[in-house]
Amino acid sequence: MKSVCVYCGSNSGSDPAFAAQARALGQRLAADGITLVYGGGNVGLMGIVADDVLAGGGEVIGVIPQQLVDWEVAHRGVTRLEVVDSMHTRKARMFELADGFVALPGGFGTLDEMFEMLTWRQLGLGKKPCAFLDVDGFWQPLMAMLDSMVRERFLHAEQRQDLWHGDDIDTLLQWMRSYVPAQADKWLDEKRRSQLKLTPEDV
């Protein structure tokens, strides 16, 4: 695994443990020589994880829409900052750059980005690992919601099993390195995707 995309809050949250976990993840990515791909911000948990990767001598690629650059939240100290025209382009570019995806605590944007990756995987548009790195049970209510979706048959059990959740960074990275998709391409086979000319940008 050469690169990991981290989604997380543009705020630091109310609990200092959120920032501590972001720092720990950044330090570990740098130590393991894993490039950080992220949203390009200099604020909140986004800025913290990027700063710690950089402090550890690691590489950081930020992908940020022009609108957020105009709002002066772009991190000018990253290894490479790519400015794109929209949030949609940002997500597609981060998908191209990363070998896997991790969500630290965050809000609407964090959920939007991670669940789009999960949807693309469900549609057979990618087979990259997705994980929620927890802090003090922050993601537990969301995991309970996913379990409810399985019980009510809105989500396949394999899709739920294909998502890692936990709070240990060592276990997370070990899982990502040995990742084998649990689910088949349930909705579209290769021939059908070709006929529809589907790419991640179309979803």
Mean pLDDT across every amino acid position: 91
Strand content: 15-25%
Q: Identify the CATH architecture.
A: 3-Layer(aba) Sandwich
| Mass-distribution shape | globular
Biggest sheet descriptor: 7 strands, parallel
What's the oligomerization state? single chain
- Low-confidence segments, given as residue ranges, are none
What does this structure look like?
- There is one protein chain.
- This protein has 203 residues and is an alpha/beta fold.
- Helices cover 45% and strands 15% of the residues.
- Strands 4-3-2-1-5-6-7 form a 7-stranded parallel sheet, with helices on both faces.
- Helix 1 links the parallel strand 1 (3-7) and strand 2 (35-38).
- It is globular, with a radius of gyration of 17 Å.
- The model has no long low-confidence stretch (mean pLDDT 91).
Quick structural summary:
This protein has 203 residues and is an alpha/beta fold.
Element layout with pairings:
Elements: E1 3-7, H1 16-31, E2 35-38, H2 44-55, E3 60-65, H3 66-70, E4 80-84, H4 87-97, E5 101-103, H5 108-122, E6 130-133, H6 140-151, H7 157-161, E7 163-166, H8 169-177, H9 190-196
Helix pairs in contact: 1-2
Give descriptors for this structure.
Rossmann fold; 45% helix; 203 residues; alpha/beta; 9 helices
